[in-house]
Structure formats: C-alpha cells, structure tokens
Amino acid sequence: MTRRALITGVTGQDGAYLARLLLSKGYAVVGGSRPAAARDIWRLREVGVDRDVKIADLELLDSSNILSVIERERPDEIYNLAAQSVVSSSFQTPVLTGDADALGAARILEAVRKFNPLIRFYQASTSEMFGDANESPQSETTPFCPRSPYGVAKLYAHWMTVNFRNVDGVFACSGILFNHESPLRGLEFVTRKITHGFAAIALGNRDCIELGNLDARRDWGFAADYVEGMWRMLQSEKPSDYVLATGRSHSVRDFCEIVAETVGLDLAWQGVGIDERAIDIKTGRTIVRINKDFYRPNELMPLVGNATKAQRELGWRPAMTFSELARTMAERDLKLAQR
Ligand code: GDD
Fold first, then answer.
1. What CATH number has the domain spanning 4-182+220-248+303-319?
2. 295 CA: nearest ligand 1 atom
3. Is the beta carbon of 14 within 6 A of some atom in ligand 1?
4. Residue 148: how many CA atoms within 13 Å on its side-chain side?
5. Which of 22, 178, 310, 316 could form a disulfide with 245 if both were Cys (CB 3.0 to 4.6 A apart)?
C-alpha cells in the first residue's frame, strides 16, 4: 500500500526537500499550505515536484480545518514544518508566533489523537529552544532556556509532542534541528541574505548589504541532509527526540568570507564594532555595513549541536560541510543573478 504523508508548511525550504525525498520513496504527498497566503510554490518547482504534491488548504490556527484535512487525506505520517520561523519577527509578534508555532502543533496532535492515534507525527523543533544554554555543544539532555518568543513557542510544541507520546501513546518525535540552509532559503535568513547580496554586488547590481552581529556563531548544515533525518525518525522502532546538527560552529563573518571568495569579491574587514565594515579590495568599495537593527537581544551561548544520538540510533550523518554549503549557495545565487 502506498504510504501517505502530510507535510505542513510544504512551500518552505524543508517542505520542498522533504516532499522530494518522500516522493522518491514512493509516498503520496499532501502538502498543507495556508489558504490566505498568496501561495508561492517556487521551491517545489525548483526541486521538480510541483506537479506531484497535492496541495491542501491548511490553517494551523483552526482546529476544525486541521481535523478535516486529516480525515480527508488519511495520512500515515504527518510532518509539522509550518511555523512563523523568523526569530527576529517573533519579538514583534509573540502572540501570533505562539498561536501558530505552539498551539498549532497541539491542535494537530489533538486531531491525531481524535482521528487516528496510529498516525506518526514529526514536530519541527529547533536549537532556539536551548537559547542561553548552560553547556556547549547542546544535546537532547541539555536543559532548555529559550531567549526568544519563537524559542518559547517551539518549546511548548516540543513538550506537547513528548507529552502526547508519553501520556497518549502517539508515535510522536521531536527533531531538534540546528540551522539548516540551502539555495531555497528565504532572504530574511542571514546565509541567503549574504549569498544573494554578494552575488548582486559581484555583478555590479548592488553596492552593499547591511548585517548585524558578524561574530554570532551558528551550527549550519544543509537542509536536504536534515530532511533525511526527519524521515528516519518516523521509521524507527520507538519514537524519541533527536538533535540534528553538524557539531561545528562558524561565525557570520566566516560565512561572508567564503561567499565573497566564491563570487569573486576580494573582501577585507576594517574598523571595529558597529563601525566595522567590509570592503572589496579590488574596487575599494564598502560591501558590508553594520546595522544594529539586525542585532538580536540575548545571544549569549554559541549554538552548536551534538547529534551523537541520531548518528547512533538512526544512522544519520550530515553529508555537506559548512564551506561546501556556503559555496553551493553562492554559486547558485551568482547563476540566478546572471540570468
Ligand atoms: N537574519 C539575520 N540578518 N541574522 C543575522 C544578521 C542579519 O542581517 N546579521 C547577523 N545575524 C545573525 C543572527 O543574529 C543569528 O545569530 C544568525 O545570524 C543566524 O540568524 P538567522 O539566519 O536569522 O537564523 P536563526 O538562527 O535566527 O534561526 C534559524 O535557525 C533556527 C534553527 O534551525 C531559523 O530558521 C529558525 O526558524 C530555526 O529554528
């Protein structure tokens, strides 16, 4: 029998890669997407699955809509990837973020319990739940200490996932994913902002980009590697929670340097703090300025993950390194800008 998967947030980066993966494994894929949003399926098109995914109107704020989609589509597996996922925006919209990211997951779990508790459920949890963690690297046993409304909302969804598993016996897994990027990333996230911006600068279409904290460190992997981990979680014998990460942290500055080299900019840093900037040595032009509006409150402990449990129990390992990722994204954006 063909297995059926429902992916909420299918039009996002991870939704597109996961849809492609599941289709390649013979699944029928239904993609949930907000009815009100001007639906843009460019990512599904980009990975070649726009005609193979059935799109269903799905609104995380509406329990009855969620239940009716599940009743109609009868999925064997649900991957809850839909969210307000921009950390900085969550400071301006904490309640809305909570409604979608925290209660949205609870609404799906409740619908699963009511309609068919045998449905396997994946919750997209995040390293942002660690926030100001008391240890580094962070693993499944690190105490959570979120420092953004987004992290707090996701932590509620994480605990609901654990609770529906422990109390109601739902096969529910929480994947605690560290940053994962790709050419499909939105421009609001720092990696794609840099690759898109530097490609335009290299071609003379733009002068400069503005960034926040250049020394912020993250554990960046490749999104297509991470969706494989999501799928593996739902195929395992027992549901559990897993960190997916590369185990290495790099700074925003490191990322800028690799991208600049890839697109042919000769980058040098000058100045310090808020007055720091990057110039292109060949032209003497400023290509990066610092804007304190892009600084985050409360970025204390560097986020870097320990994925030993996923390696041991799921045989999962990220394939793409940080520099390959930066180069891949930069090359893709340079090609797009040349078109
Ligand atoms: N967005 C952005 N823009 N971030 C900047 C900038 C800038 O101009 N300058 C520096 N940064 C720093 C941020 O302060 C942060 O430390 C880091 O770059 C990464 O920021 P984002 O790319 O916006 O990602 P994020 O870490 O906040 O969150 C992403 O990863 C989480 C973990 O997987 C999002 O995808 C979350 O939804 C996800 O949960």
1. 3.40.50.720
2. 14
3. no
4. 26
5. 178
